[in-house]
Amino acid sequence: IAEDSEEFLSKYRLTEILEKYGKFLPIEIEFDEKIINNPTPIWVKAPSELKDEDYLAFYKELHPMGEDPLFWIHLNVDYPFNLTGVLYFPKLKNDFSARKEKIQLYSRQVFITDEVKDVVPDFLTLLHGVIDSPDIPLNVSRSYLQADGNVKKISGYITRKVADKLSEIFRNDREGFEKKFDDIGLFVKYGIISDEKFGEKAKEFCLVKNTQGKHFTFEEYTAQVKENQTDKNDTVVWLYASDLQKQDAYIQSATKRGYDVLVFDSVIDPHFINGIEYKIEKTNIKRVDADTLDKLIEKEIKLESVLSKDDEEKAKNLFEQTLGGAPKLTISVEPMPTDELPVVITIPEFIRRMNDMAATSGQKSMFGDMPQMLNVAINANHPVTQKILNADENEQKQLVRHAYNLALLSQGMLTGSELTAFVQQAVSRL
Q1: Which of 85, 286, 276 is CA-nearest to residue 198?
Q2: Which helix (H) or strand (E) holds 332?
Q3: In what order do the strands lie in the sheet with 261-263?
Q4: Residues with Cβ within 8 Å of residue 191, at least 6 apart in sequence
Q5: Would you list the DSSP string of 218-246?
Q6: Protein fold of 208-296
Q7: CA torsion, points 369, 371, 375, 378, in degrees to nearest 10?
């Protein structure tokens, strides 16, 4: 035997090859005095012959260390193409990149590849399992595969079957579907933004969850908040939080106004929000800390300021002069309820959303390394604002800096030496 082929004299290497390519060959393979393959895997059997235990046992055969799947789909069609297989829905965590390429492609029970991204839509590669088809051309280019008529039909068929399965579970067991949605939501959302046909069907069963843990379909949620969260342009505004701890002050302010807040905290959500916003008629989706509430949901009737125009201008100038060294601040004076903070800091929605999308894609933001752009809104109706206006010059600067730092702290933006200095200053006043 040639020197470069000596590995094939190894029993371990031969076993490895036979198990990989012949694990499900339709004839028994005996090696080292034992049968090493399963000639009748479940995908060649009729679904009526199988129980849940059979599907779970086969999943363990494919993924011995894997957690049990949530549910599965048995594929079995012989016209206009031949396709069999079983696809499993695993529990998906936020880091889904490592969970791709878990579908194995077979042709007449002979293993071909576990890279099926050219055969099925990308979002379906998050599923696990097996597909077997003699109608998928082998050893051809990616462009040929994508243009092949049978491949297109197979891809469309699998997408439709997956959507139908999810729709069926949603209709027949809404409560169970809601419990599973935290584990499959990433898959559904990825499908909506990456596959138009799946997205059309998924709008019926994709769920959003609010801070109270209640689930809604898109249509249900719009109906739920329409009365209170419709702005002066007759657009329904969905408010959301991406971090319940860091954005708690903003969530509480919104709920005090009777507004509802959704939770979008998965790795896919920055892209998902962009993807669905234009698909839902007359709806805007805004993070709860992207602006003051009166600007997030602009109404015809607005709160009135207790300050005169001169005092508002004076307050604005005081903050601009005191915080002059801070980068990229846009300072304004706005009438807000007295139970809001004296100063509210927000990041413009567009810039924050672009940065979030870049971060989740592992790319650099289109804004590069520019300093963070912040909107600083002074609450015209808060007693502290009046106190600042009435104070002497030295105290004014201290109060302005203190109010600004409190606003930064509420956003989780006060860190490092600035946080240390703020704490030391607070201690000195005790």
Answers
A1: 276
A2: strand 329-334
A3: 261-263, 236-241, 283-287
A4: 121, 123, 124, 162, 198, 199, 202
A5: HHHHHHHHTTTSB-TTS-EEEEEES-TTT
A6: Rossmann fold (3.40.50)
A7: 160
Q: Tell me how far apart the alpha carbons of residues 268 and 317 are, in angstroms, rounded to a whole number.
A: 41
CB 114 within 8 Å of CB 102: yes
Query: What would the pLDDT profile of 302-361 be if each residue is shown by its tens digit?
Result: 889 999 999 999 999 999 999 976 668 889 999 999 988 899 998 877 777 777 776 666
Given a cut of 70, whether residue 363 has pLDDT beyond it is no
Write the CATH number of the domain with boundaries 42-176: 3.30.230.80
Concatenated DSSP letters of 2-27: -GGGGGGG-HHHHHHHHHHHSTT-SS
pLDDT in tens, 381-426: 999 999 999 999 999 999 999 999 999 888 888 888 888 888 888 7
- 3-state DSSP assignment of residue 422: helix
What homologous superfamily is domain 309-428 in, according to CATH?
Answer: Heat shock protein 90, C-terminal domain (1.20.120.790)
Structure tokens at 311: 């005092």
- Which residues are registered as beta bridge partners of 130? 86, 104
Distance (Å, whole) CA 20 – CA 85: 17
87-96, 257-266, 363-372, range with the lowest pLDDT: 363-372
Q: What are phi and psi of 395, to 5 degrees?
A: -70, -35
Which residues face 110 on adjacent strands? Answer: 107
**How do the domains of the chain map onto residue ranges?**
42-176, 208-296, 309-428
Per-residue tokens: 273: 């929000």
Helix residue ranges, H only, 107-147: 142-147
Give the pTM: 0.83
What CA dihedral angle connects 420, 425, 429 and 430, to 10 degrees?
Answer: 10
Residue 24 has pLDDT above 50, yes or no: yes
